[in-house]
Design goal:
Blueprint lengths: L10 E4 L3 E4 L3 E4 L2 E5 L3 H11 L7 H8 L7 H12 L16 E4 L3 E4 L4 E4 L12 H9 L5 E8 L4 H4 L1 H12 L4 E6 L1 H8 L12 H13 L6 E6 L5 E8 L4 E7 L12 E3 L4 H17 L1 E2 L1
Parallel strand pairs: 8-9, 9-10
Antiparallel strand pairs: 1-2, 1-7, 2-3, 3-4, 5-6, 8-11, 10-14, 11-12, 12-13
Helix pairs in contact: 1-2, 1-3
Length: 293
Amino acid sequence: MSEGNRKEPRYLSINDRIIFDRTGTIYRDGKSLYSGENALIAVLGILVDRAGDIVSPEEIVALSHTGTRDSVPNLISALRKLIGDTRKAADGKSAGYTIIATSQGKGYNLNPAYIRPVRDAVSSQPEQGSTSDWLRAVLGDYKDIAAFDMLFLTDFDWLYHDAKRAVLKTLAEKKIPVRILMADPEAADPVVSHIRGPYRMTLDSREVLDLWKKQLARYEGAPISLRTVNLPILHRLYIIRKTDGSVLINRHPHIYGSAELPQYTEIFTENDAVKADLYIREFEYLWDLSEEI
């Protein structure tokens, strides 16, 4: 997972159920569950380091220096219980594991979409700057992405941030439907003026909107829609719909006045069905009120 001198985060939240300390401890609710020389810690560390790749039982045994090939399924089963990975789909029918998937005859794959860096062993708040990494992990090769919805107050990060521009370009090239919804400038500008310094726009919302239109004009024929709604928007949402019917949501709050600077991004999956449904409904409600530009 390392690139150059990039520092790996020490603490990782796995499916918002446990926190994994790379130095060798698994926490839940701020309390240590496992630490030291432990087979579960060793195997989880291998899967985390190789997240997104298939790891064979032989590799797990060799790298963890624990157990035998025959003991690996039991360790994987214990990890799945620990992180809340079940086979039951939303309709109650049996389904494959979504967090630690089994590749028949090959090994196991920890889905990086369920991993996010956090500040410490007792916090559920991820480190700042992880959104682009999250997007890369979730989107992968884009083969299982059905649609991508974005909700902003106003945003020009996607116009200048190389990683996000690359995502938008790939979505357009692969003809994946994208809906982009922002507050109308009349609604956005009064709110933007109260956003604290690090988040204050150097351009007004109307200029940002014009830049978005110019950017999207490059992708003529791509199923990308840009709309505005005459209401203030209090957080940023990414709603990623997958071909298997599952949904991943990434939410980041805007901060106003003298409030604390945000240190977290909330990530919801199908395991957070109630919360996820609220944000999906919010987006659809605002989209129905919006106007195409």
